[in-house]
Every structure is written in structure tokens, then in C-alpha cells.
Amino acid sequence: MKDNQVNVGIIGLGTVGTGVARILLEQKDLLTTRTGLTFKLSGIAELNWDIDRNLDLTGVNCYRDANQLLDDASIDIIIETIGGYEPAYTFVAKALKNRKHVVTANKALIATKGRELFKLAQEYGVDLMFEASVGGGIPIIKGLREGLVANKIQSMYGILNGTSNYILTRMYQEEMEFGQALQEAKAKGFAEADPTLDVGGGDAAHKLTILASIAASGFVDFNKLSVEGITKITKLDIKFAKDFGYVIKLLAVYREQPEGLDLRVHPTLVPNSHLLAAVSNELNAVFVKGDFVGSTMFYGPGAGERPTASAIVSDIVDLSRDLLLKEDRHLCNRTFNPENEVKVVPIEEISNRYYLRFFTLDEPGILSRIAGVLGEFNISIASMVQLETHEQEHYVPIVLLTHQAREKDMNDALAKIGKYDFVKDDYLRLRLF
Ligand code: HSE
User: Fold this and answer.
1) Of the residues 104, 141, 192, which should be mutated to test ligand 1's pocket, given the most ligand atoms within 8 Å of the CB?
2) What are the residues whose beta carbons fall under 8 Å from the beta carbon of 414, sequence distance 6 or more?
3) Which fold has domain 142-301?
4) CATH 3.30.70.260 occupies which residues in the chain?
5) Ligand 1 pocket, residues with Cβ under 6 angstroms
6) Alpha carbons 240 and 227: distance in angstroms, whole number
7) For residue 198, which of 238, 160, 147 has the smallest C-alpha distance?
8) DSSP alpha helix (H) spans, 266-406
């Protein structure tokens, strides 16, 4: 950095990259007032220059080849907003090796390749920042790293995927089926290019991996998380949950346990009275409990051009402190320690309350046989509902809520119940908050 000017280069002028460019151009004076520094948008690398993005790029170097930007010695900070694994990984690695700080919104990259990239950052004396990778505009990463730095994090419950939350909200409010709500979410542009990551829980799991690594000051292996999506939930399940006083949310769960961390993503019945139950549509929230602060909730827009760009620019400003002081804080390595792998407790060893929904024949003795198997595996029933009629001929829906039971016992019980020919095999097991 020369004369208090920070030179910024953006790779990828999609939704988020455009937002970053817009802030650097439109909020230039505000940023200078607040920091005493000038943030200059020096260059952009983008393959498609045919779109009108409503940006005045006079004086900005516009490239098609990202290497031209990465090889520009005057650039201090590179913003990676192309997403996905490749070529994002190659560009970020090259930027770090060229001793440029990097800011990214790429949760898949940080969650799965963070270990290598943070090592590179350390080796080359630069930082890799990723506030925008979780919760869009919500400052949850700075919240954990700085605001809650004095606390051991005991638990976190996150609604981290806007697409799934939108779908579940529409299913709840409009009594829609999953497919119709997914079409709406796609039309609104919330979903990833491959919506499997959204509705399958992978996107939320990437984000949980990142939050957990920070909260536990260690390294969490993404592959050790238990991940379940929302694709099997029907409007009937939403209705049953509603009648029991719950709303179904795709929750990312972090719980400190004596044996390690309980980390999982799955649809969860959240009681109507909990703050998370009110987080609707595409909004995100993280409910965090620290040992000194108690319970806190971070809430806001989890995606989109302006919120995500807002988070990226907060990282740019943060990094400019290092440039100004010629300091190397190794922020990422302090809070995402690649040398300290966190133990994840297998979900089979965790206990939960459960929601079970079966379609069974409506004949004498069936309920007692299901209850008998649950009893055999030490699972106690808390409530039960059977509907008289259902559009599927001969089969009726039966829903049970259980008391706390071990996941392993529940797996064994369901394997046995699933073999009965009076039970259809599309039964559903959800967990309660
Ligand atoms: N597809 C993501 C979501 C976008 O629905 O939350 C932000 O990561």
C-alpha cells in the first residue's frame, strides 16, 4: 500500500462481485471518512463483459484473464467471487503465493480446501478472509472471532441456507408441496447453480464447518458431519408439525459434548415459541450460546448482491489495517487452526427427541407392533396421532413424537419397522430441537 491507498482487484463480476464493485465506487467517500484510507477498484477479471451491470468502470483495468490481475504487483487485495472449486482454488492459491491478501465468499472452498489455503497464507505472510461465506451480510464470523472472543461456545443453532428456509416457509404458509416451492425459490434466484447443495443440506454443512472451526479454534473435517436435507418433507409433515406446535427448519447444529463436538445438519422441529421459528423466507440466523455472554442471536439476509458485498468490504477494510501497520496477524490460522483437528462425535452416539411418520395399513394390532419395536429399543412415545383417511388408498398416516432416544437405537428400530409389509417404505424420521 502506498499513500494510504488500498488497491483492490476482483475476480468474477457475477452477482456478488458486482456488488463489491458497486460499494467500492459508490461508498468511496464513506469508507475514506471511516478509515482514513482510499480504496481503489484497480482491476476486474471477468469472462463475460457483454452484460450491462450499471457500473461506471472508467479507469478500472478490465481483463478476461485473471492471471493478468494476479500478476499486477500494485494490487494489494484480491476478491474471489467466482464460487465453486475450480478455477477458484487455483486463483486463490496463486494470489496468496503472489503475497496478496484474499477475500472470498466461497463457502465450499473454505470448508473443503481451507486447510491447504490457510497453510499457504501463513507460508506467504498474508491472510485469507471469508466473512461473506456464512450468513451473507450477517457479521457472524467477526461476531464469533471478536465480539464473543471471551467465550467458550457451548452451542450454535443456525438457519444457514436461504433457499431451504424459503421453501419450508412457503410449504408452511401456503400449504405447498416441496417441488412447487423449489420452483419458486429458483425463480427468485436464491438457489445455487446446483440446488442439490441447498436442499440436500450440503451448503448449510459447508457453512457449519466454517463456523465450527472458528468456534472451536480448530479444524473441522467437513466429511465428518452428518448431513440430511429437506427433500423428503411433505406438506403433510409440515401440517402435523404445526398441529403439535412446531415449525420445521433446516438447522445446522453445534453442541459441545464431553466426547467432542456434535455437528449435524438436518430438518428439525423447532417449537413455535423459539426465536428461530420466526426466521422466515430466505433469511438466515444463528443462535449462539457462550459461557459468559449467554444466548445471542445473529439475524439477517444470508445471500444476495448487496448483503454479501457488504460483508466482503468489511473484510477489505479489516485487511487494510494489516497493510497500514505492515502487520501479519495470521487471523485465519489463529481461528481456523489447521494443526488442531476437532473431534466430531458420530451422530449414532447422540440422543434426540424424534418425529416419526409412517403410512400403514389401517388394521388391528399395527400400532401396538410399531410401539412394541420402539419399546424393544428403549424408545418411549410422548404423543401420537393417526388420521382416518388419506388420499393414498388403504394406507393411513401415523405420527409419533418420542422422548429422548439414542440415534443408534432409533436406526435399529426403524430398520425393523421398515421391514413390516404393513408399513410403506417412505417413512420419515425428523429430530426435535
Ligand atoms: N444458496 C445459498 C442460500 C446462497 O440459499 O443460502 C448463499 O450462500
Assistant:
1) 192
2) 356, 427, 429
3) Dihydrodipicolinate Reductase; domain 2 (3.30.360)
4) 348-432
5) 136, 161-163, 190-192, 198, 203, 302-303
6) 23
7) 160
8) 305-325, 331-335, 366-376
What is the pLDDT at residue 393? 63
For 5-137+305-335, CATH number out of 3.40.50.720, 3.40.50.2300, 3.10.180.10, 3.10.310.10 equals 3.40.50.720
Map residue 310 onto helix, strand or coil.
helix
pLDDT for 5-36, tens place per residue? 999 999 999 999 999 999 999 999 999 999 99
Q: How many Å apart are CA 28 and CA 273, to the nearest integer?
A: 43
Would you call 232 a catalytic residue per the annotation? no
Which DSSP helix (H) or strand (E) runs through 251?
Answer: strand 246-257
Q: Please list the residue range(s) of the chain that carry CATH number 3.30.360.10.
A: 142-301
Strand ranges in 291-421 using DSSP code E only, listed in sequence order: 294-301, 351-352, 354-361, 381-386, 395-402, 405-406
Dist. CA 275–CA 257, nearest whole Å = 23
- CA of 105, closest atom in ligand 1: 8
| Cα gap 27→165, rounded to integer Å | 31
CATH number belonging to the domain at 348-432, selected among 3.30.70.2860, 3.30.420.40, 3.30.70.260, 3.50.50.60: 3.30.70.260
Q: What is the mean pLDDT of residues 44-65?
A: 96
Across 100-192, the runs of DSSP E, i.e. the strands, are 101-104, 128-129, 153-159
